[in-house]
Amino acid sequence: DVKVTQSSRYLVKRTGEKVFLECVQDMDHENMFWYRQDPGLGLRLIYFSYDVKMKEKGDIPEGYSVSREKKERFSLILESASTNQTSMYLCASSATGHGYTFGSGTRLTVV
Amino acid sequence: DAKTTQPTSMDCAEGRAANLPCNHSTISGNEYVYWYRQIHSQGPQYIIHGLKNNETNEMASLIITEDRKSSTLILPHATLRDTAVYYCIVRPPMNSGYSTLTFGKGTMLLVSP
Questions:
Q1: Scanning every residue of chain B, which has its alpha carbon at the shortest distance from the alpha carbon of A47?
Q2: Taking a C-beta distance cutoff of 8 angstroms, is the pair B106, B9 a contact?
Q3: Which residues of A touch B49 (CB under 8 A)?
Q4: What does residue B30 show for φ and ψ, rounded to 5 degrees?
Q5: B45 touches chain A (CB under 8 A)
Q6: Which of A15, A84, B76, B99 lies at 20 to 30 Å from B32 by C-alpha?
Q7: Contact B8, B21 (CB under 8 A)
Q8: What is the pLDDT of residue B94?
Q9: Per-residue pLDDT tens for A46-68?
Q10: Which helix (H) or strand (E) holds A31?
């Protein structure tokens, strides 16, 4: 089975900190995605990548950046964390033309 | 992406079939219908997808109407572990560009003993 592993299940960071959320997949998928999920707003796409070193903005990229130096790893970066970035962050990967496999999520709290 | 409309919530008795409807009246001819579910505190899980024909796998069946304007996900014998939010998503084929999944609010299915 495809595994998408997110490095932390729960994370608490202070306002202004630089935060790295890491995601690793083990099935050689070309495509990787970062979503955030908030009550009443559902899942919203932040960034995605269809190849190493490639990235595309999703629906809500403001305040975030990403890095994909290796095919299996896709990092989400909060340059200066703010309280409105408190959320559940979900990483997913897919082979082109196929469904997504999601990780278990990282619940980030910014205080 | 085409929009979908799903009921906010549904109830189902354990052991009975759960039939989850989805309207996608603006779907284009080459767009697929995908279903995912999300159990509390977990990431979404792929269930099934289809284009025109009905589909079945070990988890569920997908019935798509002939005009493709609506579909129904069927869980033939619902269990308590099927309690989750179910998302119906319309997605362009990958050869039309880098299509992504846009999640709506979904249907909260509660399976009761």
A1: B100
A2: no
A3: 99
A4: -110, 15
A5: yes
A6: B76
A7: no
A8: 60
A9: 999 999 989 999 999 999 999 99
A10: strand A31-38
**Interchain pair B43, A42: CB under 8 A:** no
> Count of CB atoms within 10 A of residue A104's CB?
15
Cα distance between residue A7 and residue A4, in whole Å: 10
The per-residue pLDDT of chain A, averaged, comes to 93
Q: Mind listing the pLDDT tens digit for each residue in A80-111?
A: 999 999 999 999 999 877 789 999 999 999 99
d(CA A110, CA A60): 18
Q: Does B34 touch chain A (CB under 8 A)?
A: yes
Q: What angle do CA B55, B79, B89 make, to 5 degrees?
A: 40
Alpha helices in A52-105 (DSSP H): none
Per-residue pLDDT 10s for chain B (113 aa) are 558 999 999 999 999 999 999 999 999 888 899 999 999 889 999 999 999 989 999 999 999 999 999 999 999 999 999 999 999 999 876 655 566 888 888 999 999 99
